[in-house]
Amino acid sequence: MRWSEIPRDAKAYMLYHTLIAPGLIVWILFPLYLMETGYSILEVGAFFTAVNLASIPLTYLFGRAFNRWDIKKGLIAIDVLDGIAYVLYGLAKGAVASVLLFAGRAVEKLSTMLYPLYRAYEQIIYPEDKYEEIFAWHLRLPEIARVLTFPVMGYILGYVYPGPESYRWAFIIFGLFSAVTVAYLWLFLPSIGKDERITPEGFTFRAGEFKLLLAFEALLTLAWALAPEIVLINYVVFTLRKTVFEVTLVAVASSLASILGTYASERVPKGKGFRAIAFGMLLNAFYALIMALSPPFWIVLAVYALGDFGTTFWFPFYRAWMFKLIPKERASEFHAAISSYRKVIGIVAPFIAGALASIHATLPYVFSLAFFLLAGSMFVMISKKRS
Question: Less packed terminus of the chain by CB within 10 Å, N or C?
Fold first, then answer.
């Protein structure tokens, strides 16, 4: 699919995600900030688990409410809340540091309760007959933004101005930048209210396939949640004795591989989506296997790139399958329900990941490997049945 063939509103939405992509470095800096200011990997895992508890029922309730409300206003709320959270992180210093960190994480978690609105918005604004093709562009552009910005920011924060004080300034800058992204959302993205969500005639809810989707979501949630970003950061910075710059290099290598993955996914023949998902899961499993062996840094770069290539390769087909199973007029509710379901499954995963990593830095990847293999096996069986 050429860029010129994508509808204008869909382009505006993709460019919004490209605009916010550099700010995702906060997801690396925040756990690293906690670790460098005295928290252990086990305590960081417990911290993230504690904040997860309140988000489960509220995620579904917000999603159900947005069946009637304008989804664009929910996207604006996400950026406002993230901006507040990042500023609180930046101000977390001295005697009130722990209070502000927890408050900031709570505010950020409130914004994540609205994240299912991204999927609902995509389901409605993207052309239904072009889901697989358009998601290649949806993934490609933000990854290009990360490739261009992460090495610069990583080098500055890792070698020029290293340490927690610089991280705090980065939090504040990205928090204030949310004013720009909120303005972009307000000016350039169309509203999506109740009238814009009409399920096509002939749509039938397929309960059996939806149960398979839920099973896959459970396996995938456990695979990623048991080897989260904090495990990589702990291994690279505290076991391999590197800096945040090397962590961003892993992200850049992953982004480059993801860009290649978007082009590879476009070459998969129609009707072979389930096979593509199974193959991508196999690549994810291989990444987890190598990481479990405590590799040197250059191999970490390679296997994380391979894993993200696999994820990008299977993602468009999985997302297209998901969207075809969900009625548009209840898109926000369904996506929020799936998100709450994932949170229930992964509720203690950050604590377990932290506990495993405290025993051995790469032990969480062993458990991640098992769940990737199970997820891939499921789609192998589905593909054989379809054949």
Answer: C
The CATH code of the domain that includes 23 is: 1.20.1250.20
Place of tokens 């499993």: 285
The model's pTM: 0.81
* Amino acid of residue 272: K
Q: Are 294 and 236 in contact (CB under 8 A)?
A: no
CA-CA-CA-CA torsion sign (266, 267, 268, 271): positive
- Lowest average pLDDT, out of 163-167, 376-380, 382-386, goes to 382-386
In angstroms, the CA 310 to CA 137 distance is 16
Quick check: 48 and 230 in contact, CB under 8 A?
A: yes
Q: How far apart are the first and last CA of the chain?
A: 26
Burial zone of 121 (CB within 10 Å; 0-12 exposed, 13-18 middle, 19+ buried):
buried
Q: Which domain holds residue 175?
A: 1-195
The alpha carbon of residue 56 and the mean position of all alpha carbons in its chain are separated, in whole angstroms, by 17
User: Number of folded domains in the chain?
Assistant: 2
